[in-house]
Amino acid sequence: MRLLHISDLHLGKRVNEYSMLEDQKDILKKIIDIADQEKAEGILIAGDVYDKPVPPAEAVRLLDQFLNSMVNRSIPVFFISGNHDSQDRLAFGAALFRKSGVYTAGETLCEKITVQDEFGPLHIWMMPFLKPAYVKAACPGEDPETYTDAVRIALGTQKMDPEERNILIAHQFVTGAKTCESEELSIGGLDQVDASVFDEFDYVALGHLHRPQSVGKEKIRYCGTPLKYSFSEIRDKKSVTILDIREKGNTKIETIPLIPKRDLVEIRGTYMELTAKSFYENLDPEAYYHITLTDPEDVLDALSKLRLIYPNMMKMDYDNDRARSQSEFEAAKEMERKSPEELLEEFYEMQNGQPLSEKQRKLVLEMMEEIWEGSK
Ligand SMILES: [Mn+2]
């Protein structure tokens, strides 16, 4: 069976105040084209379908159109909720959708759908994004301390036959994976899941981290976002992962590049250089730019003047002596880059003249996790 693996669509997302809807519409169309060309027999969407628990109507329409396109092609879709989605809302119509071959992980911790192909049964496990607290609430008597425990308990609710083929769709942070700026900040690595819980699966279709990457083993894989959602991803190559699962033990993985309608581009130079026709005539005027001006003095009204040439400029800053000497500004920027736990550790040290103990650190991390969870 040939399956497309995508994740983290974040439909409805805005990047630096720019709506990504047009870009998302375009990239979904390209994913449909790939499904046609590659004769896909199923699509796995590993969470963060939407960017918000209550997505804008346009984003809902986009998903609706995408699901319809797949149903019209008789390509089944399997999707789970990520940490950005509302699991309950995403499960709307789940029982009805199933009749059309659209499988959404409902309100359970983990569900197993079995499909058939020429090699026999293929078990597709769907495990929506979960935290120890969800597992505790759903499984009386269980009190998982870590995310790894939580995942192990959730997977344990279904029977595993390791002689048959099993693939898992999940949305978790697997230890060792590389992060980028468009993801939600992870607090102190508490949310990490040890890859050993996935040992028995023939493939793990992951979402959550936005860079395409395998973690440890090739078969434990993040397909990455279909689009770049931050300038930290500028050099990433976005793609769709294709999984060719044949008889037990024979699974091939390949990627097909995704080319966006508008790329994210960083350019730097003086105002005169960047506004010279010879410079910009070879650039895509529609791309999303991050422009760094290197003029020694700030240029009057540079933002609006540059927008005449680069209408989709997302970000503009200066790199000159003045910008560098603005230590206060830099310190603030430095602060933004720090994680909440680093900030608290520094604060504690400043107040008490000694670092946090391991015990205190653990307590602090747990409290942060609890407070953040409560504020959602
Ligand atoms: Mn995401």
Automatic annotation (TrEMBL):
Superkingdom to which the source organism belongs: Bacteria
GO molecular function terms noted in the UniProt entry: exonuclease activity
Location of the Nuclease SbcCD subunit D C-terminal domain: 260-351
Keyword DNA damage found: no
Signal peptide location: none
Keywords linked to the UniProt accession: DNA recombination, DNA replication, Endonuclease, Exonuclease, Hydrolase, Nuclease
CDD domains: MPP_Mre11_N (cd00840)
Sequence similarity: Belongs to the SbcD family.
NCBIfam families xref list: sbcd
Subunit details: Heterodimer of SbcC and SbcD.
The protein's name in its UniProt record: Nuclease SbcCD subunit D
Native source organism of the sequence: Sellimonas caecigallum
